[in-house]
Amino acid sequence: MDTTKIALAIGAAVISAVVVKKLVFKCKSLPCSSKQTPKCLIEHPVQDRVYLYQFPPLGGVRNASIFCLKLECFLKQNNIDYEVVNFMKGKSPTCQFPYIEFNGSVYAESSAIIDMLTKYFKIESKLSDEQKGLETLIVRTCEDSLYYNTLYFRWVDDEGWTGTKRLFFSFGNPILSNLFAYYARRYWKNRLYYQSVSRHSVQHIIEQAVRDMNSLSAILGNKKFILGTDFPTVADFIVYASTSNVLLFDIPSPLRATVTQQNLIDHMNRIDGMLFKN
Predict the structure, then answer these.
(1) What residue ranges in the chain does DSSP mark as E strands?
(2) What angle in degrees, to the nearest 10, is found between the helix axes of 202-220 and 234-247?
(3) Do 129-275 and 37-120 fall under one CATH topology?
(4) Domain residue limits, the chain
């Protein structure tokens, strides 16, 4: 290869690196940090229809994000009209997914969206105060503990990262996809370190996840739904999302072998069959 081609190749690589870095960290210029009001992108929205920006099904699960899957379960259970929108088309006000457009406004954060829609559609809560308290603890366990332990084996663990890279970054130009992969992994490595997950040994991380799964299994017991109701609740949706992401997501992970609680597996299949049978 002559010097001209080498120079062009180096120049293209440098430009690609700059572009990818800006794209990966573009949330710095989004409304979440600029105090701008996020704009709706749907040109002719239908009244009372939720336009749901989320990731597509990937790696053997309905959604690789437990937050997206929790919200979609809530929409289905309550027969709320919704339409999934390609997440690449929008700009999340919090730089995270899911978020929605609804009746001319943009809303982010799955729990806040659920609270807003519950009030708007006047969805009656049939839970006791004790059940509401238990639901909060279950959601926090899944979202603030088990979730991060799961992500460790996607983004930090080398074997899991090989599978994650194959699923998420096998597209288009290999230089661009590798750069996307590099910056995305660096972001999650930093986040999981500051979350204090990756400061611990792998064995400790696995033990924490097992403790969470055993706790969820103990609460579920032989009940159909985890709060003892005759209908699924948000607690069921987040447990379903978490269990399926541990058990079914198609990457090497030692956590998969820890899901031996048959009641959690039956619960996962029950929720999936109820809400996604079509």
Answers:
(1) 50-54, 82-86, 99-102, 105-108
(2) 140
(3) no
(4) 1-34, 37-120, 129-275
- Angle at the Cα of 92 from the Cα atoms of 89 and 93, rounded to 5 degrees: 145
Listed in order, strand segments (DSSP E) in 77-225 are 82-86, 99-102, 105-108
Residue that is written with structure tokens 């048959």 in the block: 262
79, 261 Cβ separation under 8 angstroms: no
Strand pairing report for 50-54 and 82-86: parallel
CB 217 within 8 A of CB 264: yes
Instruction: Output the CA torsion sign for 159, 148, 20, 98.
Output: positive
Enter the CATH code of domain 37-120: 3.40.30.10
Q: In what side-by-side order are the strands of the sheet with 105-108?
A: 82-86, 50-54, 99-102, 105-108
**Which mean pLDDT values do the consecutive 10-residue runs of the chain (278 residues) have?**
46 44 46 60 94 94 97 98 86 87 96 98 96 98 97 97 94 89 96 96 97 98 98 98 96 92 98 92
Q: Residue 50 and residue 53: Cα distance in Å, rounded?
A: 9
pLDDT at 7: 39
pLDDT at 19: 44
> How much is the pLDDT for 40?
86
As given in the structure block, the two tokens for residue 231 are 């209908």
CATH of domain 129-275: 1.20.1050.10
pTM: 0.87
The residue whose two tokens read 């600029």 is 34
Query: Among residues 58, 79, 264, 69, which one has the least CA distance to residue 163?
Result: 58
97 in Cβ contact with 71 (< 8 Å): no
